[in-house]
Amino acid sequence: GKFVDELRWDLDGRYSAELYSDHTVDLVNKLKSEENPFFIYLAYQSVHGPHMVPQKYIDKYSSHIKNVDQKVFAAMVSSMDEGIGNITRALDRTGLSENTIIVFSSDNGGHVNCLKEVEVTSSNYPYRGGKRALYEGGVRSPSFIWARNRLSPSKSNAMSHVTDWLPTFWSLASLQGKLKPNNPIKTKPLDGFDQWLAISENLPTNRTEFVINIDPKPVRCGHQVSHAGLRWKEWKLIIGQGCPPSGWYPAPGFADLENACGPYDSYIELYNIIEDPSETKNVSDKFPDIVKMLTDKIKAYNATAVPLGNKPRDPASNPRNFNFTWMPWLDMFDEVPDEAYTLTKEVWLAGNQLSDDDISSSMETCIAFDQDIDLVEF
Question: In which band, very low, low, confident or very high, does the pLDDT at 309 lie, cut at 50, 70 and 90?
C-alpha cells in the first residue's frame, strides 16, 4: 500500500530505545555548530508496556534482582539511560553542550497494577494512585533540567504544567539573542507561563492553577463516569471520580494497602495538597465555599473546551491489516474488510518473535465500555 512501502523494514529487530538514541546522536553530530538554534524532542517508549528489552541489559541485574518483572523493568531503564549518556557525550564532543538545555520528564505517574494490565513494577508511594488517576500519584511526574553553567543544583516546588515549556523555551531563546527582542509568539493566547526564574532562581511562579482533566466519557482501565479535576493554590477538587487506581501502592515486594482499586462511587473530593499531599483526608464537607468556587472554575474552563472528537473503533485500523504495523488507515480501504488481513510467510519478515498473544492489545483485559452512560453536567 502507499504507506507500507515507506516503512523502514530494514530496522526490524532493532530495540526502539537504541534506535532513537542512535538517530539523535546522528542529528547532534550533523549540527556541530551553535550558529543555528535547534530543538530535539525525543520520546522514548521506555518504560511503557509491553516490557521487553535485549538480554544484555537484563544480564546486568541477574545477580541482585530476583523478580523477573522487576529485572526487565530495570533493564529497560538502563537501556534508556545508556542512550541518554550517548547523546550527552555527543553534545560534549561537538561543543554544543555549553549552550544546550536538557529537560527530562514523563507524561504521568507510574503504572500501578490495579487492573492487572501489565506487570507491576512501579510505585508512587506515598502519593495516591498512579497512571490514569487524578490523584497525585498519577499527576506528579519526576523531572529534571540540566544547563551547564546556568543552573546550580537545587530543587523547585513551583507549581508547573506541561503547557509552561513552550513560553519558557521561547523566553530562553530570546534571552540568548537567538530571536529578535520582544518578538511575540505568533499564536493565540497561551495557557503556559514562563517558568525560568522560578526554576533558576527559585522565585515565585505566576501559575496558581491548572486543569487536571475534564472528561465526560469513561475510558478503559480508567474512570468509569464523567470526571473533572482542578488544582488551585493548595487545593485540589475532584468531581465524579479520581480513579482507578486510587490506593496507595508501596514499592513492589511490599504489601498493598486495603481497598487498592476502589472507591468507584461518584462523589466530590477536596484535598489540601500542601498539608495532605498523600490525599488521605477528603475535606469537601468542611469547606463548601472552596468546593463551589473551584466548581465554578471548572464550569468556566469547560465552557471554552473544544467539542469531543472521539470516534468509534474502526476495524479497518487493526494492525493485522498492515503486516502488524500501526499506521494511518483511512482511505486505505474502499470499505471495511469482512475479516482481518492474513499474513503469509513471504510478507512476514524472518526472525520476528512476536506471537499473536504479544500483539493482542492489553486493553482487552480491562473493563469494557460498550454502553452509553449519563454525563455529569459541570
Answer: confident
Question: What pTM, to 2 d.p., does this model score?
Answer: 0.79
Burial of 10 (0-12, 13-18, 19+ CB in 10 A): exposed
Sign of CA dihedral 108, 113, 115, 119: positive
The predicted-structure confidence for 207-230, as pLDDT tens digits, reads as follows 999 999 998 877 766 777 788 999
User: Using alpha carbons only, what angle is made at residue 25 by residues 22 and 30, rounded to the nearest 5 degrees?
Assistant: 130
Nearest to 271 by CA among 259, 261, 285, 257: 285
Average pLDDT over the chain, rounded to an integer: 78
Q: Spell out the alpha helix ranges (H) of the chain.
A: 16-31, 55-58, 68-93, 136-139, 165-175, 196-200, 288-303, 356-359
Q: Which DSSP symbol is given to 231?
A: E
- Residue carrying C-alpha cell 493482542: 360
DSSP state of 103: E
Decide the pairing of beta strands 144-147 and 101-104. antiparallel
